[in-house]
User: Fold this.
Amino acid sequence: MNKKIHFLFDVDGTLTPSRLPIDPKFKTFFLTWIKDKSVYLITGSDKDKTIEQIGIEIWKNVTRAYQSCGNQVWEKGNLISEKPFPLSKELNSFFQNILTNTKWEEKYGNHIEERVGLINFSTIGRNCPQIEREKYYKWDKIAREREIICKKLMEKFPELEASVGGQISIDVHPKGANKSQILNDLSGEIYFFGDKTEKGGNDYPIVERLNKEKRKFKIFTVTDPEKTLEILQKLN
Ligand SMILES: [Mg+2]
Assistant:
């Protein structure tokens, strides 16, 4: 296969089930598949969470791991760059206000998580059990709470950008400091795999920018890791 192709992978919902570890069979396949290829991870999660999900071998063996939507970059286990984004008082009170007024009643704690270059916000809270996570996700599909929060946030803070990621949260960062940053570092053809490629999703900035650029690219929107595996097996 052409080595000049850069393969970009979202993690949650693309290489692993949301917030859960990678399937062992997929892991074995992927570790072999990435050999001699230009492979990048681009995720909203921090390094520790990603390693917990995909394992240290994949994390260290990909070409680079872009954490916090590309605001922290790791290469073979070494930190090569980061852009901090501390939580302001104003943004904190905006989140507190949403927590007070949300129609979602059950709260589990860890609602605001500060990562390097990115703040992750969740009304149900990241400490929720898996079953409640699923419930919230189903509810949000109809209520569109996260989409509405993102819209309100960007109206109030025009210098910021917010997007829906994973099942229960949103990602917030300075405008432009989204997943599309990865494209600044790469020239040549791109194959991108993601599950939130629709407008408002955290993979969308990559799609939007690729559509504007003149380079060759392919976008693979997947529903789950099984779909990613199926596509990769056909590529070989
Ligand atoms: Mg995803």
The mean pLDDT is 95. The chain has two domains: 6-83+178-235, 89-174. The helical segments are 24-33, 47-54, 56-61, 89-101, 130-143, 145-156, 204-212, 225-235.
